[in-house]
């Protein structure tokens, strides 16, 4: 218990320090350095955790990598929100910091509720597994199809929120101010809420995914926390410096399907439903934590390799086309 209290105190202190550090816009170099520092902090935490429980350490790294990969999709939504509300560059990092902090609090509530339900009702592993497999199939199908322009619908939702709240202009970091005796919100408050709610929506598939790895609330929360805390730096690198990884969505689909199957196996091993094996658990060996970590890491590595190879190939083709004919 002492380790958990000290750990939570340290990681929240790290978050607030990072938030204070985010008062100015990031350069690519500083974003890369800070991201490496935050990833290093997660690695150190996992290493310390291994001295207490190797299984918890492996589950932490599996959950951390899974949550980080699933959170990459959030970055482009964050970019759309910042663009829609026309957040000044000086406030963009601050907006992401506060929005992500609110998202952490929302995720904590969802994690506690989800872990509590799964610990009491093991049959819920079945619908969670089916949900993850369905999401994986949908993501894989959309990967092979040409994506439609779904941003109009998202911007429509933001527009409705923008019209509901009485809003004015930006006033530094102020969230509201008085204008002729009337309370007026700045767009900064709407940006915070939009980022937090968008993350809560995306966590509907990421939280069941990590609960498929472990139902230990402490491990689930810390892996989520470390995955979210570095999103500002990753956003800066992806949006301003790196091209998107083409095959990452397909890799994430494979990971979600794998965890969905893992949930089904765990549900069968603790079965209590009468119409399955007479309500008796099936003797199915659980997938070891190290296997889960290896599968997730390998799939992401292969996704990155194929993406870089495809990007290099496309650049070569563009280069050959741009050469003038003799």
Question: What does this entry show, briefly?
Answer:
This protein has 326 residues and is mostly helical.
The backbone outline, from C-alpha atoms, is: globular
Number of domains: 1
Question: Counting H and I runs of at least 4 residues, what is the number of helices?
Answer: 11
SSE arrangement, N to C? HHHHHHEEHHHHH
Query: How helical, in percent, are the residues?
Result: over 70%
Which residues form runs of ≥5 with pLDDT under 50? Answer: 147-155
Taking strands numbered 1, 2, ... along the chain, how are they ordered across the largest sheet? 1-2
Class inferred from helices and paired strands: mainly alpha
Question: Measured on Cα atoms, how large is the radius of gyration?
Answer: 22 Å
